[in-house]
Write a structure and sequence with these properties.
The chain contains 6 helices and 7 strands. With about 190 residues, it is of the alpha/beta class. A 4-stranded mixed beta sheet has the order 1-2-4-3, covered by helices on one side.
């Protein structure tokens, strides 16, 4: 359901979606601001949450609208074809740089037009990444690459896995939280 709220002389539209969790989350995507909330949270609580997060909201809406302008293309497949080679070069170089800490062996690197994931790692040691990684801020792209590299040794999200990640990304919890603010909306990089 679409709502609007006026904060700091700005009228901000947002959508509300119920989630199964116990906390509220915000994300910014092609369709604007999304508030994900537990079923028991009422409208007054949502508005209070938005007021508390207004600086973050305004900042992310600015970043997002700038990215839409910078990356405006006819359709996602054309954008993928256009950026696939540059994404491969960028990611391959980042893997070489970041893997100096780990020296893990991997089979191959694939660049894909993934709809819901920034990256993945197969049991065969194949590293797969979304071409959209090149549009993220560098620290977020580095985190995604390190995350998948660490799955080469720990194919889970155990304490041992996170200890490996922390060797390269000491503030991985904050970076992971920031990454979640970049929604993987299919229209994001049109």
């Amino acid at each position: 359901m679409e709502k609007t709220i006026k904060i700091k002389d700005q009228e901000i539209s947002y959508r509300i979606r119920n989630n199964r969790g116990n906390s509220m989350r915000l994300s910014v995507g092609y369709n604007g601001l999304l508030v994900s909330k537990p079923w028991f949270v009422n409208q007054k609580m949502v508005e209070s949450f938005l007021f508390k997060k207004i600086d973050w909201i305004i900042d992310k809406l600015k970043i997002f609208s700038k990215r839409i302008v910078e990356n405006n293309q006819q359709n996602s497949y054309q954008n993928y074809q256009k950026n696939k080679k540059n994404a491969y070069i960028f990611i391959e170089n980042k893997i070489k740089e970041l893997n100096k800490v780990y020296n893990f062996k991997y089979s191959k690197i694939s660049i894909r037009n993934q709809k819901t994931r920034w990256g993945s790692c197969s049991r065969r040691g194949n590293l797969n990444f979304s071409y959209k990684l090149i549009f993220l801020p560098e620290k977020l792209a580095n985190y995604v690459i390190v995350h998948e590299l660490c799955h080469l040794k720990e194919f889970n999200h155990s304490l041992a896995f996170w200890n490996l990640v922390s060797l390269s990304v000491s503030d991985f919890k904050a970076v992971r939280k920031e990454l979640r603010s970049f929604t993987f909306d299919k229209n994001l990089f049109l």
